[in-house]
Amino acid sequence: MSKNILAIDVGSTKVCAIIAEDRGGGNGARIIGAGVANSQGLKKGSITNIDLASKSIKTAFEDAKRVAGTFETEAIVSISGAYTKSIHSSGIVNVPMGEVTITEIDRVMQTARYNANIQVEYDILHILPYNFKVDEQDFVEDPLGMNASRLEVFVHIVVTPKSNFNNLKRAVELAGLKVKNIVLNSYASYIATVNPDEKSLGVAVVDMGGNTSSFVIQAGGNSVRYHGFLAVGSEHITNDLSRLLHTPPHVAENVKITYGNLNIQSDDLIELPIVGDETSTHEAKLDFIREIVHARVAETLGILADQIYESGLRDEIGAGVVLTGGLTKLEGVRELAMEIFNTPVRLATPKPISGLFESLRDPAYSTAIGLVMYGAGYYSLYEFDSNGDMKFNEDSIKKAQIPNEISLDNISPKSFQKSLQQSATPKEPNIGVGNERVGMNPMSPPHQPSSYSQMNQPQPTMTTPQPNEVQVSTTPQTNIPKHQQQQPIANELHHKQYYEHLRSGSSQLEQDKNGVVSKLWQWVTQLF
Questions:
Q1: pLDDT score recorded for residue 484
Q2: Which domains does the chain have, with CATH numbers?
Q3: CB neighbour list of residue 86: distance below 8 Å, 6 or more residues apart
């Protein structure tokens, strides 16, 4: 059964709400409704008035709901790069079973989060692994299922002040909605615009919006490695024109759209109303208008080029720069960008998805479409989101096979004893390297257990592994997301201690006292 996705792009000049149907099974999403409202209560990417911001969000949502004929109340919401930070960290863990499972990937990313020492006044938006290292093999695209004794990860962590995070969340809640996820706007634009070739070669995605510009860089890995922000956008061009041409802002906006061609030089004159007395007019040269627009765009692109250079990744973006956002609709911006960035530049509109309205086939809506795609599963192969939950690509997880899996339905004590004998070789204990904290929620202090341990896994005390260890898999818990299902804990305890722990402490298994636990305990008793 399909479910709905609600995406809300909270921009400095507009709020866009899109309702889409997630068709699941890798079939993507289908847009069924959209609404746009002018932004209020926002300035330079930050909320300055929660009540006004919530009204803009509600207006856009109500329009989208009316068009769609249905609605969703949990929203995936964009947040600007204002006041955000890029933090890089790494983690390393042992792989006791000799094969990387989702558990090891979870633990190594948690370790990287802990090693980052995030300040308490910041909230994490994303933890994005851009490089996995399996033993000595670097830049592994997907370590899942690989044979290894050690797994290492390098991550890009996006953080924002708690006040910034909470103000946005509060504005959404005042609009009568709930926040499902908060996504960095430039990351959403990246999802909506970048193609596989650009990902493999390395690329910088620059989103030039109304009052802000932002960018992300993917280089030398399979996810975003850096992000940046600049509080300058197309509205600054409008302000420049209004001030230098002495004409009202709404007239200056029309001049920018109509005559803001960066390629054509002309001595032609146009008449413009004078600010404060629109009954009077004066003349302005088109070439003078071009110079005003050119100066602001060149300055903005130059600052962004400097930020990309300062990231240290300038030489790793083999595919060049992808430009998107409303400002990129200016004629000649690509040629100017190629001159300033000194690299190939592509102007990008959002990727075509089912039901995409013609009005949304516009670079100004790249972030909004990216949010829809994020909700449909088009994110990095693995990542931790703003809730501290691990997200992963379903297709990748399907290939994971649990070795030596034992069915509990059709097995006798004799065959169970044979399985024990086959698993008698002792394994290395499941102990991480460095500052690893097993079972730690990546968004919480080290002493708090992760969602995995809270829902499914007991947290035993580590002991030296003993002979006759066995790996046991229980029946999959179909109502729980795959990454939260019960994972095997083989080779961490002697099997007898493990079953005692299950019998006494695992609320998940005690729900069926006459089921799995009783069978296991009976068989172990016979063995001993």
A1: 40
A2: 85-159+390-398 (3.30.1490.110), 202-347 (3.30.420.40), 413-527 (no CATH)
A3: 156, 157, 158, 226, 227, 228
